[in-house]
Amino acid sequence: ILTNNKTFYERLLQLRTHGITKVSAQLQHPNEGGWYHEMQSLGFNYRLSDIQCALGLSQLGKLPKFIAARRKIAALYDKALKDNPYVDVLVEAKHRVCAYHLYPILLKTKVAAHRKAIFEDLREAGIGVQVHYIPAYWHPYYQGLGYRRGLNPNAEAFYRREISLPIFADFKIMDTARVIKTLLSILDRYSA
Q1: How far is CA 113 from CA 12, 91, 106, 130, 190, in A?
Q2: What is the mean pLDDT of residues 87-101?
Q3: Considering only CA atoms, which of 58, 89, 45, 64 is closest in space to residue 180?
Q4: DSSP label at 137?
Q5: Cα–Cα distance between 67 and 169 in angstroms, integer?
Q6: CB of 186 within 8 A of CB of 86?
Q7: Could you identify which of 18, 53, 156, 157 might form a hypothetical disulfide with 43, taking C-beta atoms 3.0 to 4.6 angstroms apart as the criterion?
Q8: Residue 103, class by beta-carbon neighbours within 10 Å (0-12 exposed, 13-18 middle, 19+ buried)?
Q9: For residue 109, which phi and psi values (nearest 5 degrees)?
């Protein structure tokens, strides 16, 4: 989690370590010594293990290569789907570099009503598509807190049209070509 809010930062530090603090200014009882700490709230154990940290550090060195590979795949998708009558592609913002964690496409009106069938046909063809993301407040937990559909029409409209195409650093050019060919073939079926 990243934040520039000091209050959130201090609270998050507590939550990640079982709700415990050793910070003198936060203690509610007198500090009994260097060992003293207080559990002030119910927290969790969100600390990484040493093995997870080592793996993470080793992967950070490969990050530029991973991003370059994903950007190459995204460029192939962009070129193949530019001005497509069935889908809109998202445009990278100026002065930004997208890492392409996902490659979402938005189905245009003429095929959007068939999203479920398009999704299922792509999966049946062995294309690992996904939908990202169901608006958070549509989930039962948030519904139970009183949130209702309609709260954010833009997020809901995006969700109803979105399908994410497979993209990862080891994805091969020929796999990308197969995804594009299969996608366009399936979209043609639902365009009438």
Answers
A1: 42, 23, 12, 17, 9
A2: 95
A3: 89
A4: G
A5: 7
A6: no
A7: 18
A8: buried
A9: -50, -40
